[in-house]
Amino acid sequence: MGGEPAKWVSMVTARTPTNIAVIKYWGKRDETLILPINDSISVTLDPNHLCTTTTVSVSPSFDQDRMWLNGKEISLQGGRFQSCLREIRARAQDVEDEKKGIKIKKEDWQNLHLHIASYNNFPTAAGLASSAAGLACLVFSLAKLMNLKEDNSQLSAIARQGSGSACRSLYGGFVKWIMGKEDNGSDSLAVQLADEKHWDELVIIIAVVSARQKETSSTSGMRDTVETSALIQHRAKEVVPKRIIQMEDAIQKRDFPSFARLACTDSNQFHAVCLDTYPPIFYMNDTSHRQDNQLCREMESCRRNTSDNVQVAYTFDAGPNAVMIARNRKTAALLLQRLLYNFPPQSDTDLDSYIIGDKSILQDAGINDMKDVEGLAPPPEIKDNILIQKSKGDVSYFICTRPGGGPVVLADETQALLNPLTGLPK
Ligand code: ADE
Questions:
Q1: Buried/exposed 271-284: b ≥16 CB within 10 Å, e otherwise
Q2: Per residue in 62-118, pLDDT tens?
Q3: Which of 249, 285, 324, 423 could be a cystine partner for 320, CB 3.0 to 4.6 Å?
Q4: What does the record list as coiled-coil region(s) (predicted)?
Q5: How close is the Cα of 75 to the center of ligand 1, in Å?
Q6: Taking CA 94 as the corner, what is the angle to CA 169 and CA 421, rounded to the nearest 5 degrees?
Q7: Ligand 1 in contact with 52 (CB < 6 A)?
């Protein structure tokens, strides 16, 4: 896009990760402030594989706030954007850049307009928490542009008002969203439990099952659950508080069997609560259930053999995608072999676009091309005569990733999404 050069444009570009909850957030006690009915814990996913990049800019030449998402202009009128913009502007500080001739007093921010461009490096409709990464990136980049004094935990309480799970994307590694007690939400924020280096053996494989827009939005799903499910109260008051303590302990000790048991049972209970909602909510589809069955069978056989031999955890969010967490690279390679055996790509799909992210897991699995996929040996349960239906094309693609770092500012102007002279999308 072209446009006249502006008087001056000040801008910041940042990159923010997405996250996957291993103790789930489901149900609000305040819909406007987005206050949850229980604490939750997540793993931040490596932004080298899944991330949002956002450029925010300000100029006296801009005549209104504007935003472009993945290259298309979108409205900023929604409550979630307005809450974040209002909260950030209220905390803005003086900004001075002598070289560029920029001098902004903190009271000026109320009258200056913003241009925002954001890009998700994964399909927005794939059910991969794009709004979590997106709102976290918006708040983080605006906080840098407006020179806020708040730390990431305080910023997380602002991001929370844009999208609940966005608050957990303000940190890398392992993150807890504390539900808080205050009516104004000031103590409902994210804290880091451990950074991404603490447990870097873990490998995360996501099966993107369908890129269709999900049928029940989380917002209306949660509302229906809180209004109609009896089980949700038991979950929020009795089950989750104990699981949070146990999960923090499992993460601290890198105790994989406990981590896996907690993550899997919590995912199961989340879907049970959805089923207990009237009318019931089904987020998993046939492909998810087939993966779930396969994973449960493997876990059950591990459990029967020895109680601490569990190698893979799974969790399903409010959508059909399976998120699998392998104990280490060796088990991730074995898991990938099984997944490719059971869920092979369609004949016109190349391996390079079927497995994205950290492709080195493929090499560990000894898979270099489609011939290797076709030559994969059947997993042991086939020998045990349990029928496995091969499901070509049911998985759109797999993402291999790991725990990753938190938000960062990208100083290199070539990575900006807005033109530094005009403040319009490049
Ligand atoms: N929703 C989905 N992706 C987003 C993004 N990058 N920024 C803001 N909202 C979003």
A1: bebbebbeeebebb
A2: 999 999 999 999 999 988 999 999 999 999 999 999 988 999 999 999 999 999 999
A3: 285
A4: 85-112
A5: 12
A6: 75
A7: yes
HSE of 323, CA atoms in CB hemisphere, 13 A: 27
Domain boundaries for CATH 3.30.70.890 within the chain: 203-401
CA of 417 to the centre of ligand 1 (A): 14
Nearest CA to ligand 1 atom 4: 134
**Distance between CA 41 and CA 182 in Å, rounded?**
20
Task: Give the burial string for 337-367 (b: 16+ CB within 10 Å, else e).
Answer: bbbbbbbbbeeebebeebbbbbeebbebbeb
Q: Which atom of ligand 1 is nearest to the CA of 52?
A: 6
Pair 109, 59: CB distance under 8 Å: no
The finding on whether 124 has its CB within 6 A of some atom of ligand 1 is yes
Pairing of strands 40-44, 174-178: antiparallel
Q: Is the CB of 69 under 6 A from ligand 1?
A: yes
Cβ atoms of 160 and 131 closer than 8 Å: no
288 pocket-lining for ligand 1 (C-beta < 6 Å): no
The CATH topology of domain 10-196+410-415 is Ribosomal Protein S5; domain 2 (3.30.230)
Bridge partner list, 113: 59
Task: Please name the residue ranges forming H helices in 186-281.
Answer: 218-228, 231-234, 240-253, 256-275
Distance 52 CA to ligand 1 centre (A): 8
CATH tag, 203-401? 3.30.70.890
Q: Is the pLDDT of residue 349 over 80?
A: yes
8: CB partners within 8 A, 6+ apart: 59, 60, 100, 101, 102
> Ligand 1 pocket, 130 CB below 6 A?
yes
For residue 355, how far is its CA from the centre of ligand 1 (angstroms)? 24
Question: Could you give the C-alpha distances from 325 to 199, 304, 405, in angstroms and in order?
Answer: 12, 20, 17
CA 9 from chain centre, in angstroms, equals 31
* CA 55 to centroid of ligand 1, rounded, Å: 12
Burial class (CB in 10 A: 0-12, 13-18, 19+), 87: buried
CA 210 to chain centre: 17
- How far is ligand 1, taken at its centre, from the CA of residue 138, in Å? 8
Which residue intervals of the chain bear CATH 3.30.230.10?
10-196+410-415
Q: Ligand 1: which residue has its CA nearest to atom 7?
A: 134
